[in-house]
Each structure stands twice: as structure tokens, then as C-alpha cells.
Design a protein that fits this description.
Mean pLDDT: 97
Shape: globular
Structural class: alpha/beta
Number of strands: 17
CATH architecture of the largest domain: 3-Layer(aba) Sandwich
Radius of gyration: 21 Å
Helix content: 25-40%
Number of domains: 2
Low-confidence stretches: none
Strand order of the largest sheet: 4-12-11-10-7-5-6
Largest sheet: 7 strands, mixed
Bound molecules: 4'-deoxy-4'-aminopyridoxal-5'-phosphate
Length: about 425
């Protein structure tokens, strides 16, 4: 008999374009904490969290309560038409939370890409300069400017050009693949001599931990050096914390591990526990630069999302909540570091806090990427009830994005399943 998943899949194939790629042909009916259930009644442990959105877990009762209460009052009026308190309170919270002891202001939007777009608009308005520098291996969204900034051609940029002009890329450090931070810094300085005069650069945008690029952490030393360079040339530094923010790495922001203070910071994903909310927070003088009416969005800072965000932040800020990220990192390292010796395809175990990834290679010396390995691994993980997703320029990394309060025995059990699958896939494909 045809399962409900299969029946829905057929409808999906008929009515939804084929290129909206699915990691799993599993239709969800319910989600709670770290778990979700499909239409056929199967239970899964969710290591994807809708791509890093569920730091406080699915269906947190306090978030649901806050959204329900707001739902009864009003769902939308548009902050540009008639403002409402939740927007202002959220802005106040973000202003206190964002790094930097100077006056700050916050703009709310809906998607991550929109936050990036607006950070660039604000940086251009403030500096009166056109150019933006991003890193290779980066991901900043799928809008025209987001694509232009993104440092990964396949999938994201393939077939969709021409792209927005005045975007330049410097090599991201990638120690596992032989690009040291010193080389990456030299590359950035060289770019200022060969590609674009730094006096024309409005902003350098970077993810403190490259997300879609495969969870490559940028070290404090590298980030501090970039900060010094941007300051020397009057360039703004934008930290894209859309995936790494809101406690994912064990601090509220990943950039905090370095002590570097960006001028602007973009956030989205876990801010509102699954409701669409994003934004830009930064120095007041920079945020105030665009002309009145020049920046906005119909749904930006939607009341339901703002209500969810205010509550999600209270949960994240509860004593001990963020520390849980460290326990997750320790567990991931404990399970997978020893596996490197046993399974040569497991090339690298890396990340910070609850933002951990495994990179797979055909050969530990040549480090030739092995995307097929990860594709098969992701499939087998789901077969055994663990939802995982890929990452990396070569789609050869597996990433874990569990909710921070996942019970450690549940985490351990699922990681062991992934470990067994790694052995099995290696036996099958090697
Ligand atoms: N920047 C980063 C660092 C991201 O991880 C993402 C989403 N994966 C985006 C921007 C784009 O966000 P959205 O899909 O909400 O537009």
C-alpha cells in the first residue's frame, strides 16, 4: 500500500517545481523539542532544525503561548504604517545583546537574505562607497545581491547571472584544505591592491563561522586582523550571524569568541524560533545613515514573529542554556574524533559549540571531496530516524544543528547511529 509520504510526494512532484530540492521525502505533521513526526507516524530526531532555526527546540510552550496571545490581538499592521510595542521592545533587546559598548539601533526584516541586502544598503549610505568584499565559501542568501556575495558557484550562482556589480571575493581561510589564515589575510590585502581600491569599499561582510560553507570557524586572530584592516581603511565590518547567532556556538554571537566588534550584524533564523524574522543591528550613526523611507519592508518585524522572538530570547538567556552548546561540542568530538583513525574517509571534525560538522574525503592525503558518501550517509541517517543535512563548497560535509537543550542521552544515541552509518557507508562505497 502506498504510504502517505509517497502520496504527498507525488502531489509535490506534480505541483511544485522540481528544483526546490528536498533533503528528505518526509512530510512532517508535528514537531516537539528535538523530535519530529511524519505523516506515516514515524518519529525522527531532528539535527537540522529547519537549517539552524530551532535553537530553543520545536514547539517550546512559552513561545507558543506568546504567539497565541499576540494572535488574539493582531497579526499585522506594518511597522511603517502604525508601529507597535513588540517591535520597539525587540529592538531594545537586540541593542543590548549585540556586541559593542556604543549606541546601537536595530532594523527588522523577514528573511536572512533581506537582512544582508539591507546591511549593504545601510553601509553604502553611511560610507558613500559602492564596493563590498565577501569571502569565498560564504553564503549570504539567494537574492541578486545575496547571490553576488555568496562565494559558492554551483547551485547558488549557476545559471542566474549577471550578478550585482561591485562585489569582490577574498579567499576564506580553510586550514583543512591548506589555506592558512595568514595566506587568507595576504589575499585580502592583495585584493585591495589588485581588484578594488579600499577607499571605494563600503563593507567587508563575513560569517564568523562559515555556515553553508561547511562550518569553518574563523579564528580570533584572523577576525582581529580583518577588523584592524577595515578600521585602517574606514571600511565597515558586517558580521553575518544568520546561522551562527542566538547561542548556536555557546555565546550569543559567534563573533564574541574573538572579542571583535562589528559595525553591523545581520541575524535571522533562530531569533524567532521558527517564525520568519531577521534584522540588522549596529552602530546608531551607521544605522541612521539612509534617508527616511529608504529602507523598509511590509512584513519586517511582524508582530507574531516579534512576540516569538521576545520569548525565545528569554529562554536563550536563562542561566546555563547557552553553556549546553559546549556539552554538545564535547559529545560530537568524543564520538567522531576516534572514528577518524578507523574510517579514513572522515577527514575533519570541526566547529564550535552546537555548530559542528564532519568533512568526508575519498583519500585523507589528497583530500579529494566525497559528496556521494555524504549523500548516502544522509539517506541512511533518515532511514534510521535521524534527520541530517549537508554543507560545504563540495557538499561533502555533514552538519549537526540540534536544539541546544537536546537531552544528552538522546544526542549520544543519535550520534552513535550516525557513527555506525559512517562505518557502513564506508564499507559499502570504499
Ligand atoms: N546568511 C547566512 C549566513 C545563512 O546561513 C543564510 C541561510 N542559510 C542566509 C544568509 C540567507 O537566509 P534566508 O534563507 O533566510 O534568506
Amino acid at each position: 500500500m502506498e504510504s502517505r509520504n509517497q502520496a504527498l510526494w507525488q502531489a509535490r512532484e506534480r505541483f511544485v517545481p522540481r528544483w526546490v530540492a528536498q533533503a528528505h521525502p518526509i512530510f512532517v505533521v508535528r514537531a516537539q523539542g528535538a523530535r519530529l513526526w511524519d505523516v506515516d507516524g514515524r518519529e525522527y530526531l531532528d539535527f537540522a532544525g529547519g537549517i539552524g532555526v530551532m535553537n530553543v527546540g520545536h514547539g517550546h510552550p512559552r513561545v507558543l503561548q506568546a504567539v497565541r496571545a499576540q494572535l488574539e490581538r493582531f497579526t499585522h499592521v506594518c511597522f511603517q504604517v502604525t508601529p507597535y510595542e513588540a517591535y520597539v521592545r525587540m529592538a531594545e533587546r537586540l541593542t543590548l545583546l549585540a556586541p559593542g559598548g556604543f549606541p546601537k539601533k536595530t532594523l527588522f526584516l523577514t528573511t536572512g537574505a533581506e537582512a544582508v541586502e539591507n546591511a549593504v544598503k545601510i553601509a553604502r549610505a553611511y560610507t558613500n562607497r559602492p564596493a563590498v568584499v565577501a569571502l569565498t565559501h560564504s553564503f549570504h542568501g539567494r537574492t541578486l545581491l545575496g547571490m553576488a556575495l555568496t562565494g559558492k558557484a554551483s547551485y547558488y550562482k549557476q545559471n542566474f547571472g549577471p550578478f550585482a556589480p561591485e562585489v569582490y571575493h577574498a579567499s576564506a581561510p580553510y586550514p583543512y584544505r591548506g589555506v592558512s589564515e595568514a595566506q587568507a589575510l595576504e589575499g585580502l590585502e592583495e585584493l585591495f591592491h589588485t581588484q578594488v581600491d579600499p577607499e571605494r569599499v563600503a563593507a567587508v561582510i563575513l560569517e564568523p563561522i562559515l555556515g553553508e560553507g561547511g562550518f569553518i570557524p574563523l579564528s580570533p586572530g584572523y577576525l582581529q586582523a580583518v577588523r584592524r584592516l577595515t578600521e585602517a581603511y574606514g571600511i565597515l565590518l558586517v558580521a553575518d550571524e544568520i546561522q551562527s547567532g542566538f547561542g548556536r556556538t555557546g555565546r550569543m554571537w559567534a563573533v564574541e569568541h574573538s572579542g571583535v566588534v562589528p559595525d553591523l550584524l545581520t541575524f535571522a533564523k533562530s531569533v524567532a524560533a521558527g517564525l520568519p524574522l531577521s534584522g540588522v543591528v549596529g552602530r546608531s550613526e551607521v544605522m541612521d545613515a539612509p534617508h527616511v523611507g529608504g529602507v523598509g519592508s511590509t512584513y519586517g518585524g511582524n508582530p507574531l514573529a516579534a512576540a516569538a522572538a521576545l520569548e525565545a530570547l528569554r529562554i536563550l538567556e536563562a542561566p546555563g542554556f547557552l553553556e549546553r552548546a559546549r556539552a554538545i561540542e564535547a559529545k560530537v568530538r568524543e564520538v567522531f574524533e576516534p572514528l577518524k583513525a578507523e574510517v579514513p574517509a572522515l577527514g575533519d571534525v570541526r566547529g564550535v559549540g552546537a555548530m559542528m560538522a564532519l568533512e568526508f574525503v575519498k583519500d585523507p592525503v589528497s583530500k579529494e571531496p566525497w559528496p556521494e558518501f555524504v549523500l548516502e550517509l544522509v539517506r541512511r541517517n533518515a532511514e534510521r530516524g535521524v534527520i541530517t543535512i549537508r554543507a560545504g563548497l563540495y557538499s561533502n560535509a555533514l552538519r549537526f544543528l540540534p536544539p541546544l537543550d537536546i537531552p544528552l542521552d538522546m544526542l549520544e544515541e543519535a550520534l552513535q547511529v550516525v557513527g555506525e552509518n559512517i562505518r557502513e557507508v564506508y564499507a559499502a562505497l570504499a
